[in-house]
Amino acid sequence: MLTRFFLMGLDRKAGLVLTVLALLAVLVPVMTLVVPEGSPWHLSIFSVSLLGKYLCFALLALALDLVWGYVGILSLGHAAFFALGGYAMGMYLMRQIGPRGVYGNPILPDFMVFLNWKELPWYWLGFDHFAFAALMVLVVPGALAFAFGWFAFRSRVTGVYLSIITQALTFALLLAFFRNDMGFGGNNGLTDFKEILGYDIQAPGTRVGLFLATVAALALSYMIASGIIASKLGKVLVAIRDTESRVRFLGYDTESYKLFAWTLSACMAGVAGALYVPQVGIINPSEFAPASSIEAVIWVAVGGRGTLAGAILGAVLVNFGKSYFTGALPELWLFALGGLFVLVTLFLPKGLLGLWAQLTARLPSGKGKRVPNGKTADQKGM
Amino acid sequence: MRRAFRWLLAACVAIATTSAALAADLRPLVQTMGSGGYAGTEKALNQLSEAGDPAAVPVIEALQAGDLYVRKADGLVVIARKAGAGFALTDPLSGAVVGEAAAGAIDKIKINNALRRSISATLGALTLMSPDPATRRSAAEAVFKSRDANALDALNTAIAKEKDERIRRVMEQARAAVILTAGASEVDTQAAIATLTARGDRDALALLSMIAASGATDALKTAAAGAVAAVEQKLMFWGALQNLWYGLSLGSVLLLAAIGLAVTFGVMGVINMAHGEMVMIGAYTTFLVQQGLRTYAPGLTDLSILLALPAAFLVSGGVGVIIERSVIRWLYGRPLETLLATWGLSLALQQAVRSLFGPTNREVSAPSWMSGAFELGGLTITYGRLWIVVFAFAVFAALLVALKRTWFGLSIRAVTQNRPMANAMGIRTARVDALTFGLGSGIAGLAGVALSQIDNVSPNLGQSYIIDSFMVVVFGGVGNLWGTLVGALALGSLNKFLEPYAGAVLGKILVLIFIILFIQRRPRGLFALKGRAVEA
């Protein structure tokens, strides 16, 4: 039954995505660990972490696309779930430092010693176990999303209003995590990690392992998402996106459908954050900034809203561009990003994948296959 | 009147005689300061205090600073300050140069803590008679804080001489504080309690509660307890009023930032994430106007804010019209896409300003009529804040009139209510759209002029207001100007009333959570539009 669920979502595009991910999973470890350093085919550890970072962003974009592209909920606060997952992982990594911190306290992280705290706050208990932390990576963003969505969808807050209160949510969390007495390291966040599951976090092998975990998480999430979309549940979700009131009149409990997709998406974002933190080595409150949530939206828009592969493609391309521009032409990056927002919304409403589909449809040899989302929510004027 | 004149005459005579005649009388006293150890110095100090001559102030100040020395050769008391290898000596009373001495040739007059206390009391007493009103006032405040019984006689003399009503009141309060601390007859103490009740601030409260706890008689204790209650009530009243003023002040800033958005978002339904950048452009226009005036017409710098108002309105409004014509008009009916495109514009505008003006803060100085403060009862109100409150309400009123009473406002309302019908009636809807967006952006520019006075003029100026502005508009109800007014003032006051209990950051978080919950209850805001327009 479960296999059928996964297989249902596997069309040609899904096959392509999974093949690319599988290739990455084979090539990257070989190029980093086996190929000697002098060879032009060698991949540095830095590049591995950078690629891993892109794939974490891709997972965040995938989560966002699930709710924006298929349910029509534009979340301007998805970075909050990403950051919460990241903090849960960060707390585990902090506890793993043990007495190797600057102050050498075996229990308390450095910043708590610095604040003159005597014992661990209750919400830090349990985070010395990886399994508990991994559970929290899913539970904390999921619970917040469930509570938030339960209230918001039941009150029928939709469209722009929902977007604005998701922004208020992430802004409130940003302010809260900046406070030192919250017990999450305040301004500096959590950093100086030493090891994960007993492995040195700086070691090439661990880095490659984290990268593989990211690839696996992305592939699994992709299969879950495409499985859902191909299922009957997915059809209802798309129907809600296009005209929610009609679906409601047909007798569907639209709130529960939305709540399910929304909570699942938040959990995916949490996993993305949890994989992101050990690879970049730091998590701080700036991840909650409303700007980072909106940036994630543009990844999806560039790749093609309502196409899961597009979300992944957009996230990787935009972040690659960001790394390039901020290194080579830092002055121009914001112009480029700003221009991207404007150009994509004006000229590429279906993103790069939509453009590709249009081009192939015109060619005589092309099969003329339409993109799965021929209709988008904008036609309903939301 | 005649009495006042007599006092004046007496004071003039006193001052005239002090400077000439009494200076000679001080000299023997000053000479005794160096002999007899701590006790001798203390005695000389007390005598100086009794003489009540302000001319002794530099001597005592030098003693306090540890600059007063005795020359070993002839026992002369001098002020010695390090100069090169040795010390430069000056006469403590006249300030005339006496000569130089090696470090071994002079002895420092040492002081201990007991002496330090009488030094500050004596200084306080002597400065009470200073001809400078500011010095007298701060001296009286110093005595009020130290509550030194030694200063009582000096205070009495000073109160008798004092002509300035306000300084005399401070002196009387100081005397009351001394009386309450040192103890006095029942009648005097009762009078002191009354004086301090009239003062009614935290210092007075502390003194009064001390008497209420350990007064000499029961009658005094009850009187003091009553006074404590009265002062506490008064403090609470003024505290609440001060909070209300802060809330009004913050509310008017929010109103200014949000009111342009109320036009673009509320009336037109366009989510303009670049709204904050329109505010920022207005602030930079103010900066440019001020710089221009400073260079070409320095005399008019005080008017730069007034000249910046139309300039900022036109510049921001012009940018708004350009944005509407080039980007937004292609996205009508797709608010989420508009949101993304305008966010992109805001990033580009920020970077453009950063490239043009640099990333650092620009200085916009306040005109003279906007600086300073005045006191109203227990309230301190700065002119800058007062003007911003007035300005915010003026802009609101002007916008209301423009929308309700002009042809342009009529067209705006017609287009937003029923676009095809308005079009059929001959209204050029495209032009109205552009001008409406320009109006909203222009108002944001006006807000920028005001905010340049209280915030840093930097490329990030707008970003800090955009979320607050959206909260205000959504909270108040989209499409309703009065809702925006009420929303801004309510959120401003709520924020300021939470701040004393929760702190600034937590207060803001609580306000955000409040808004999120509020939207659940009333998804369309405080004053929701009813009817068909809602679904459109």
What does this structure look like?
The complex is a heterodimer of chains A (382) and B (536). Chain A is mainly alpha-helical and 382 residues long. Chain A has one domain (2-290). Chain A has 15 helices and 4 strands. Chain A has a two-stranded antiparallel sheet. A two-stranded antiparallel ribbon of chain A has the order 2-3. In chain A, helix 4 (78-97) runs antiparallel to helix 6, helix 12 runs parallel beside helix 15 and helix 13 (308-328) runs antiparallel to helix 14. With 536 residues, chain B is mainly alpha-helical. Chain B has 3 domains: 2-127, no CATH class; 136-216; 239-534, ABC transporter involved in vitamin B12 uptake, BtuC, CATH 1.10.3470. Helix content of chain B is 70%, strand content 6%. Chain B has 20 helices and 7 strands. Chain B has helices at 2-31, 37-51, 57-65, 113-127, 133-146, 152-161, 165-182, 186-199, 202-214, 218-267, 275-296, 304-326, 335-357, 383-405, 407-417, 419-424, 429-451, 463-476, 481-502, 504-521, and strands at 68-71, 77-83, 86-90, 97-101, 106-108, 373-376, 379-382. In chain B, the strands form 2 sheets. Chain B has a 5-stranded antiparallel beta sheet with strand order 4-3-2-1-5. Chain B has a two-stranded antiparallel ribbon with strand order 6-7. In chain B, strand 2 and strand 3 form a beta hairpin. In chain B, helix 12 packs antiparallel against helix 17, helix 14 runs antiparallel to helix 17 and helix 15 crosses helix 17 (429-451). The longest helix of chain B is centred in the middle third of the chain and has 50 residues, at 218-267. Chain B is elongated and about 105 Å long. The termini of chain B are far apart. The relative contact order of chain B is 0.08. Chains A and B meet through helix 6, helix 7, helix 12 and helix 14 of A and helix 13, helix 18 and helix 20 of B.
